[in-house]
């Protein structure tokens, strides 16, 4: 398993950050690993909804079938997906108000046999991508 985390304080209200975070039509503007949603983003933002995303990590393209596992409107979006080579990917976005700004934390995990072969590089690449994503997200909402 490889686990990654990135955090940032974004100078924007939580509602504005959440709105951008869940606007799947503009995902590519801030999410550093996203390439496209071949069938569009999730039709309904609700636990149990599924959607497919094409991504790129460590220079490799991957298609992930995501399921929304947890949704707390304005605060938490957790998704888990199945990627290539039996890799399971989990991503959890959590937002907290911080005096007119928003603390955003992204937790990610990768599990599966293929992960053990490249865990170190995967952690470094995913951490860099999450940090870049938060930087871009901040620029869009601040």
TrEMBL record:
Official protein name in the record: Polyketide cyclase
Lineage, top ranks: Bacteria, Bacillati, Actinomycetota, Actinomycetes, Kitasatosporales
One Pfam family named in its UniProt record: Polyketide_cyc2
Superkingdom of this protein's organism: Bacteria
InterPro entries: Polyketide_cyclase/dehydratase, START-like_dom_sf
């Amino acid at each position: 398993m490889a686990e990654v985390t990135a955090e940032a304080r974004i100078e924007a209200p939580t509602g504005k950050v959440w709105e951008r975070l869940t606007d799947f039509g503009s995902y590519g503007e801030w999410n550093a690993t996203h390439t496209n949603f071949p069938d569009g983003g999730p039709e309904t933002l609700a636990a149990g909804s599924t959607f497919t995303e094409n991504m790129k990590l460590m220079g490799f393209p991957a298609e992930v079938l995501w399921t929304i596992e947890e949704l707390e409107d304005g605060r938490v979006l957790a998704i888990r997906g199945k990627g290539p080579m039996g890799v399971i990917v989990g991503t959890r976005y959590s937002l907290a108000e911080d005096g007119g700004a928003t603390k955003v934390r992204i937790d990610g995990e990768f599990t599966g046999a293929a992960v053990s072969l490249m865990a170190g590089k995967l952690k470094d690449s995913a951490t860099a991508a999450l940090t870049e994503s938060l930087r871009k997200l901040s620029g869009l909402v601040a």
